[in-house]
Amino acid sequence: MLLASAVLSFAVNALSPNGIDVIGKYRELSGSEGPIVPPTAEPDDPPFIDINVAQMEHAAGQALFVDARNLEDFECGTIPGSVNLPFEYLPEGDLAPYFDSVLAAPKDRMLIVFCSGEECDLSLHLARNLKLQGYTDLAIFFGGAREWEKFGLDVERRKQCG
Questions:
Q1: How far lies 11's CA from each of 17, 20, 25, 105, in Å?
Q2: Pairwise CA distance, residues 83 & 105, whole Å
Q3: 64-99 CB burial, b ≥16 within 10 A, e <16
Q4: In a domain, 162, yes or no
Q5: pTM (whole model) above 0.90
Q6: Using the 8-state DSSP alphabet, how is residue 84 labeled?
């Protein structure tokens, strides 16, 4: 009876439009030698993470992803659930109130800062500024939006871009 119910369950699941995958569809790990680190990195910078760690943290849902690019690039495609904090448009003066209002997160929440990819150092500069403002759990995903998309991970697009 147990065997018959198991077979029936698998058959119903296989035919259902809302069926659950029996074998998960996971991407291959990058096999990289670690995170991408820019040549301008300094010893006291927040740690750099690779695509595997970024995806794991995103899946866990505890970290806040912070996109350091301008609004146009952010709207064209970003890591789902990210907050846009464009480094090039930071206001003059005290950044603490601005960061507090945009991030709306405690200073000990994990923040993963990113931008376009290896050619973009906005994430590095934004993370340094966040650290100066007292944010304590920071990481930099230097592979950025480009590496995220290259690995076939979901991208949130707020508008279609050319």
A1: 12, 11, 19, 46
A2: 11
A3: bbbbbbeeebbbbbbbeebebbbbeeeeeeeeeeeb
A4: no
A5: no
A6: E
Task: Determine the length of the chain.
Answer: 162
Residue 116 corresponds to which tokens in the numbers above? 């376009």
Helices (H), the chain: 2-15, 51-60, 71-76, 96-103, 122-132, 144-150
34: containing domain? 27-150
9 domain-assigned: no
For residue 86, the domain's CATH number is: 3.40.250.10
Task: Give the whole-angstrom CA distance, residue 140 versus residue 44.
Answer: 13
Cβ–Cβ under 8 Å, residues 35 and 48: yes
* Residue 64 forms part of a structural domain: yes
In a domain, 41, yes or no: yes
List, in order, residues 6 or more apart from 161 with CB less than 8 Å away. Answer: 72, 75, 76, 77
Do residues 146 and 120 touch, judged by C-beta distance below 8 A?
no
68-100 pLDDT, tens digit per residue, is 999 999 999 999 999 999 999 999 999 999 999
Q: Across-strand partners of 66? A: 83, 113
Domain count, the chain: 1
